[in-house]
Amino acid sequence: MLGVPAIPSSPSVSARMSRQGRRDTAPELAVRRLLHAAGHRYRVNAPVPGIPRRTIDIVFGKAKVAVFLDGCFWHGCPEHATRPKSNAEWWQQKLDRNMARDRDTTTRLTDAGWTVLRFWEHEDPAVVAARVAAAVAAARDRR
């Protein structure tokens, strides 16, 4: 099901989806500011090693820590995800593919020795930044 193309219900839906921000969202910027202020250096939107067309939101390459800040709607948050009623079948397939892709990315990175951290956009940026910093420190200690 990962390779099945989806067609939106109308040109206006397609246009709205194409304008949706993919990077530098407010939650990402908040977490990145906190990490940077604490002295951490990282890459942003780096390619997932060995997987074309997928990116990691925040990457600590030497420590092999990948951080994803997932949007509640697009990635199926158990607390806040909603399902559109218009063109419901198409949306269900689209969102299911997103979640399957997330699981596949996490599995592949973990199998390659990476620490993968996934957070929801609604989580407190200070808590997220603290957990990321702790994971990076632990990964560096293991090296």
TrEMBL record:
Enumerate the UniProt keywords alphabetically: DNA damage, DNA repair, Endonuclease, Hydrolase, Nuclease
The family annotation for this protein states: Belongs to the Vsr family.
- Give one GO term, molecular function aspect: endonuclease activity
**What NCBIfam families does the record tag this protein with?**
vsr
Extent of Low complexity compositional bias:
1-15
Signal peptide span:
none
Q: What is this protein called?
A: Very short patch repair endonuclease
The cross-references to Pfam families, in alphabetical order and at most eight, read: Vsr
InterPro entries in the cross-refs = DNA_mismatch_endonuc_vsr, Restrct_endonuc-II-like
Organism superkingdom: Bacteria
Q: Where is this region: Disordered?
A: 1-25
